[in-house]
Each structure stands twice: as C-alpha cells, then as structure tokens.
Amino acid sequence: MPHIPMKRVYIVDSIDRQDQILHELQKLELLHVDKAQIDGFSPQAERFSDEERRVRDLLSRAQKALEQLAPWITEIVEAPAVQPLPTSSEALNAVEEEMALLNEKIKELVDKHSELQRRKTAWDELKSRNWWPSDPRVHEQLEHTESLLRELAEAYRTRLPALVLACENRLLRIQAAAQCVYTRYAFVLSGWMPGSELERLRSLLQAQFPGVLLLESRLPWPRREIPVSLQNPKWAQPYELFLSSLQVSVYGSADPTVWLGIFFPIFLALMIGDLGYGLVLVLLAVWARTGLPGVKKQGALRRMVESPRGRSVTVISSHVGVLAMLFGMAFGKFFGIIMPWPHFDRMEHLEAYLVFVVTLGAAHLVLGFLLGAFSAARWGEQRVLVEKLGMIALLVGLVLVAKSFYDILPKELHTPGIILAGLGLLALLGAKGFFATLEVFKLIANVLSYGRIMALGLVSMVLAKVANDTGGLIEDVIVGILIALLLHIINFALIGLKSLHSARLHYVEFFSKFYQPGGRRYEPFGLRRHLSLKSA
CA 224, CA 146: separation in Å to the nearest integer? Predict the structure, then answer.
C-alpha cells in the first residue's frame, strides 16, 4: 500500500491567539509541525527561551516531588483530562511558589524519615544482642513521620501528575511556537498533515477561531522532507513491527508491509511444515490473545504480551501457525509422525522441493524489482526504472534457461530465455555501466539463498523423527515420553531461529530491490496523556 498522501499547510493568525490555537492543534493531533520557511522571515526561538527555562524548572520540581512521594503513594492517579498550565503570570507564580514550598517540606520529612530509620535500625540491632532495650520514642517519631508523608502523598497524588503533564505539554507548545515565523502582529505555523484531513481541520479551526487562515502549499517539496505515515489494512498492521528497526522509507516509495504479511508467514510455515507444531503455535497465540489465563496479573510475561510489540507477535504467530498446519497436512507430518493420507514427501522429492522453493524465491525477488520499478516510474527516475526492468528480464531469463535445461520447462523456452537474459544485461550495462555484470552473480546468490527454506524444513522434520525414535527406543515408557517431549520442545523452540531466517530473506534479499531508507516519520503535534518521569 502507498504512504498516506501528505499536504504542506500554513496556519496564519494573530499572535494573541497563538497559544490557544496550538493547544487546539495538540488536542486534534493532526499536524506534524515543521520549521516555517518564508523568504525574509526566520523562526525566533530565542523569544521563548525565558518561558522554556521557567517551565522546565517547574517541571523538574514537580517531578522531584512526585518521585520523592512515590514510596508513600498507593496508586498514582493521572488526571482524566489533561489541563493546561495557567497562562497568567500571577497564577504561574503561585504554582511555582507552591512547588518550592512542597519540595522543601518533602525534603525535610524525607531527611527526618531517613535519620529515624537509621536510628531504629541501630536500636533494633542492640536489642537483638540483648545489649540495650529499644527506644519507643524512635518508633513513635518514625510512625508519625510516615503518617505525615502518607497524608502529603494522598493530597498530591492527583495534583502532581496533572502538573507534570501540563508542563510537558506546555513545553511541546513552546517548541512548536519556536518553529513559527512572526510579523509584528501575526504568526505563521507550518507543517504536514494527511491530505484527507485538510478540510476537517480547516472547519474545526475556523469554527473556534473565526478569521484564522489555513493555506495549502502548492510548491514541490523534496521527498525526503515529507513525513511518512503508513497506510495498511488491519490484518497487515502487525507486520509494521519489522519496519520499526529500519530507517523510515522515503515518502512515495513502496511500502513492503502487506508483502511482509503474505510472504513472511509462508516462508516460516514452510520451514516448520508440521501440523502438530503449527497447532501448538496457534494454541499459544490464542492463549496470549485471551489474556494469558493462569499467569499472574503483574508478571513480566503478561506485560510483554500486552505491549504493542507483544500483540503484534501474537497475531503474526497465529498466521504462521495456521499456515504451518496447512503445510503440515500437505507434507503429512504431525510431530514428525507420518500421516496416512496422501501427501508430498520432501525427502523422497528433494529435487522437486528445491525447485519449488527456489522458484518461490525468484518470484519474491521479481516482486521486489517490480515495486522498485513502479516507484521509479512514479517519480520519473528513468535510470532506476531501466535498472529494475533489466533485473526483472535478467532474472526471468535465467530461470527460463535453467528450467528448460533441466527439462522442467519445454526446451523451446531455452532460446527466449537467453534472449531475455541478454536484453536484461544490456539494460543493466546502460544503467550502471560495466559493474552491472557483477549483478548477475549477486542475483544468482540471492535466488539460491531461498534454499534455506528447504534446508531448515528438512532439519525440523529430521529432529521430530529423532525425537520420536529416541523416545521409542527407551524401555521405560514414561522416561521415553519425557525425552521425546523434551526433544520436541527444543525443536519447537528453534522456530525462533527460523523466524530470523525468514526475516533475513526479506531484509537482505527482498528489501534491497526497492526499499529506500532516509525518510522522516510522521509525528503529529499532540498531547502527552501519560506520565513520563524521565522527561527533560
């Protein structure tokens, strides 16, 4: 799927309404704020330096108070609605003074608590050795101090989180304002947003701020400056996980997410190729999706599974599991046991299976070149287009030559294959020069690399058979079952290694044919709604 079409927009209004407009834009979370570029004007970040310093100081005090009171807060309550900082200087002065006094009070109580705790520990040690009875006054003073800290924590458990979030959001508005350009009475804010949302944003702003201007830029912009937001169907969105470790692709280039969602589970399921292992994978995915019944609520496993990455992995695992079951039925394997229905035996038909996976790999590479060609044609990159089409012709020609030579395809295709490969090589020489000849060897190596699908699938099949045979050789039935189970668990765990190989076929062989890193991620200007005690 293509990237979401983006529009460069300018918002123009009077300076006295700037903060209200920025706050409204934060709530809408549509605009990726960028530095305004207008001839004769430049952003004036220095005009906000004093305000930024003041808000950062207040944020630091609020965070410090919250962190010091954390041991006595039973549950941190974030404000249900994020409130802005007061705008008047007098109200802000009052908040600053309140935080200064609160920090002093907390420091005094925490220091006193630490000292009393040390004295209590010393008295308890003397008492344990029967050297001296403990001093009841220390215990009483310690309990009283803890009571004061709990009361203070209870009083501020909502107020402090709300203040931290308000400061963080005010800093975001200050940083956005520093990107604007200014005349004596007006400001100009610039940024990127999805084109489909343009009219909605204009209506919302004009309804709340009559007279505000929202202008669309008609100038061409370098693709690397346009932020990128992916547009994928719901079933394919979990596969965006594979792109999170890569640089963002350039705007307008091919997005591989859907193709990842098709080919990654197919490759991995072929490597598993067992009905039983696929069934276990599906059951584990269902168990994770239903909330991990039987696992404690605050465990690390639950936190991992409930994270966005964990949910994506769960969905991908269910896709792989279902396909592994289907391939397992086709190969007639259930935990390494041969099933009685008609099936394709990979060991008996090694050559045919190798031809199948290599052909699948060649089709995968052709798809990559096609994606690169479509992108080049869209943006008028003639040399790249010739190169990609030449690679397609070369690859298809080589496949035809090889298959006709081994009588897999009719002999009549041998000559057309040579002609097609020759035309492809000529196109590459024209696009890349003499070094294009090296692409032939690289291309052959890429195609043969897909042979790992067959190799890892056979290894898994052999290990499953070894597990069953080893368990059957042991006279003690229970011990035999346990050993077979252990070997099957090890074989199942190797799915993680196989997933790396499936990912590698995409990262190295597939992406190199079309993926263009170097873009910018679409990060709309918005509100922070959850605490981040490590904020600057």
Answer: 57
